[in-house]
Amino acid sequence: MNDADLPYGPRPVDPGQGGAEHWEMHHGGSLWVMGSHGWLMYRARVGIEWSMQFCADPAKVDRLRQEAAELVDAFPRTLPALAELGYDRAEELLRTPIKDADGVEAWTDSLFNACVPLSRGNHQGILPKVPGEHHYPWPVKGADFVRYDDFQLWVTLPDGTHGAVTPVDRRGSGDGHVRLAFAPEGSDASATIAEAQDRGLMAVLPANSPVALQAFSRQITPGRHTASGPLSADASRHGRRGSGSGSGSG
Q: Is the peptide bond before 128 cis (omega within 30 degrees of 0)?
């Protein structure tokens, strides 16, 4: 599989291992199937972290097995391809109802749950370095894999904690407001998000706020006092190339 085909981008390089390539396999609900052009990975409705198996209801885990089997059956090349790779238990796992702790254990550590390939940072990282899936909510963390490279999703909030923001309009709109998408429990901003959600609103920060300026810092010219306005020349070229992924406004 080429790097361009990997679900989370180019394989990681670990400087501590002399540049060796190193994945960590996340128990995140990894549903691998063989498509017409190669391997694809879908995410299950939920993934079962290793320690969570000990509080997992077998009947509920069996629903995940049934859903995985239905997906794999839609890709008939999958089971023969897995057998060629030496993964002989795939069909048995998909066809055997999960009724007890042994069945839960087998599913938890199987290809269909425990093989989401992530770099160490994206797996276990903590801000201010890299936000990992074990510490930040997936609906927000997932944006790291689709956002534009020059939009800063994770920012330092005024109280010194780290949160996540998103644009409120498409790239190039000129709107520099940002929506506060995540703030850690107990931070000054967490109550703001909770109140906004209770009222069916978004928690939006102004374009001249330090947070908005952080988020769009690579899309605006240096020295600007607002994130609203035109994209910088570099950001305009970046957007036309379509490199990176996701959405910034600038």
A: yes
Q: What's the chain's average pLDDT?
A: 89
Nearest of 197, 186, 147 to residue 163 by alpha carbon:
186
Average pLDDT of 222-232? 95
Q: What is the pLDDT of residues 60-114, one digit of tens each?
A: 999 999 999 999 999 999 999 999 999 989 999 999 999 999 999 999 999 999 9
Alpha-carbon gap, residue 40 to 33, rounded angstroms: 5
Distances in Å between the Cα of 36 and the Cα atoms of 40, 42, 75, 188, 248 are 10, 15, 9, 50, 33
Residue 187 has pLDDT above 90, yes or no: yes
- DSSP string covering the chain: --GGGSTTSSPPEEGGGTTEE--EEE-S-EEEEEETTEEEEEE-SS---GGGGGG--HHHHHHHHHHHHHHHHTSTTHHHHHHHTT-TTHHHHHHS---SHHHHHHHHTSTTTS-EEE-HHHHH--TTT---TTTS-HHHHGGGGTS-TTS--EEE-TTS-EEEEEESS-TTS----EEEEE--TTSTTHHHHHHHHHTT---EE-TTSHHHHHHTTTTS-TT-S-S-SPPPHHHHHHHHHT-S-S----
Confidence of residue 22 (pLDDT cuts 50, 70, 90): confident
Ramachandran category for residue 26: left, alpha or beta (phi over 0 → left; psi -120 to 50 → alpha)? beta
Using alpha carbons, select from 130, 148, 128, 137 the residue that is nearest to residue 217: 148
pTM: 0.77
